[in-house]
Amino acid sequence: MKFNPDVSSSRRKSRKAHFSAPSSVRRKIMSSSLSKELRAKYNTRSIPIRKDDEVRIVRGKYKGREGKVTQVYRKKWVIHVDRVQRDKSNGASVPIGIHPSKVVVTNLKLDKDRRAILERKDRKKAEKSEDVEMTD
């Protein structure tokens, strides 16, 4: 059931919005879930994927493979993981694109901006701040 009258539930419009999304929106859509250890540590489920994150592939032909993200290819909606590639007939090797929803982040590349994102997304802190009552 549709609750917000400003949002269309049309399949056609949803697909158009998705596939013509700008890079800034694609970043958010191309998020990956965190491993159980990271989920417990940061109290958040997923985060937008980024170059130099370490991931484990959990679906498809390359399931079980681990590696570092070498490229986030937003235009094609895929990421490239090192050592996940195939050889062409002329001998050259090309990276295979993997959708970010099919990987689990096992190690994050942290800098101050990424730390700020995790700080904002921390669910436990949000719950604690709601419990505090204001008194005069």
Describe the protein.
With 136 residues, the protein is of the alpha+beta class. A seven-stranded mixed sheet has the order 2-1-7-3-4-5-6. A hairpin with a 5-residue loop joins strand 5 and strand 6. The longest helix has 10 residues. The radius of gyration is 19 Å and the shape is globular. The model has no long low-confidence stretch (mean pLDDT 93).
Provide tags for this entry.
7-stranded mixed sheet, 7 strands, alpha+beta, 136 residues
Q: Cα-atom Rg, whole angstroms?
A: 19 Å
The succession of helices and strands, N to C, reads HHEHEEEEEEHH
From the spread of the alpha carbons, the general shape counts as globular
Give the number of DSSP strands: 7
In short:
It contains five helices and seven strands; from the N terminus they run H-H-E-H-E-E-E-E-E-E-H-H. The chain has helices spanning 11-19, 23-29, 36-42, 112-121, 123-131, and strands at residues 31-34, 46-48, 54-57, 66-73, 78-87, 93-98, 103-107.
Annotate the secondary structure layout:
Blueprint: H1 11-19, H2 23-29, E1 31-34, H3 36-42, E2 46-48, E3 54-57, E4 66-73, E5 78-87, E6 93-98, E7 103-107, H4 112-121, H5 123-131
Parallel strand pairs: 1-7
Antiparallel strand pairs: 1-2, 3-4, 3-7, 4-5, 5-6
